[in-house]
Amino acid sequence: MRERLFGIGDDYWIEDTDGRKVFLVDGKAMRVRDTFELKDAQGRIIVEIRQKLLSLRDTMLIERDGKQLAKVKRKRLSLLRNHYRVTLVDGTELDVSGKILDREFAVDYDGELLAQISRRWLTVRDTYGIDIVREDADAGLLIAVAVCVIVLAEKEHED
To answer: Residues 1-8: contacts with CB within 8 Å, 24+ apart?
Structure first.
């Protein structure tokens, strides 16, 4: 994934380890709130990512087929500035922690690692990898979570 991914209106491909284009992150320009679509290689929308308007804390929403799938926000009462909570619509909670702005963080569920995001694996400038650890994990959701926490961390850092 390319670092400049989070410029609204920019589009970036996510490639697999063999260099095949797997997902497209489509940033939507000219919107009141941050909006992205994660599409498969054929252009079908996998998930939509939006900034939630009118919330006390910055929150991003992940939707699939027009229905909310997850909500992402900074964990309340966390001593760690880079700790985020993902709440799925079924009540399941995922934790995201690490050095978000450095692109060194992990997503886990109940202590089990689901995905790891890191720059260390790649030598290409402004690029980082997303390793989906579990084969049965929802890759689109985990990539969307990574997009959300980076957007939220960058907004918080700017403020």
So the answer is: 1/25, 1/127, 1/128, 1/129, 1/130, 1/143, 1/146, 2/126, 2/127, 3/103, 3/126, 3/127, 3/128, 4/126, 5/147, 5/150, 6/147, 6/150, 6/151, 6/154, 8/34, 8/35
| pTM of the complete model beyond 0.85 | no
Q: How confident is the model at residue 55 (pLDDT cuts 50, 70, 90)?
A: low
Q: Which of 15, 33, 32 is nearest to 24 (CA)?
A: 15
User: What percent helix, strand, coil does the chain show, rounded to 5?
Assistant: 15, 45, 40
Q: Which CATH number fits domain 3-158: 3.40.50.150, 3.30.200.20, 2.40.160.200, 2.30.30.40?
A: 2.40.160.200
pLDDT of residue 25: 86
Report how far residue 159's alpha carbon sits from residue 152's, in angstroms, rounded to the nearest whole number.
11
Record the tokens describing residue 105, joined without a space: 């963080």
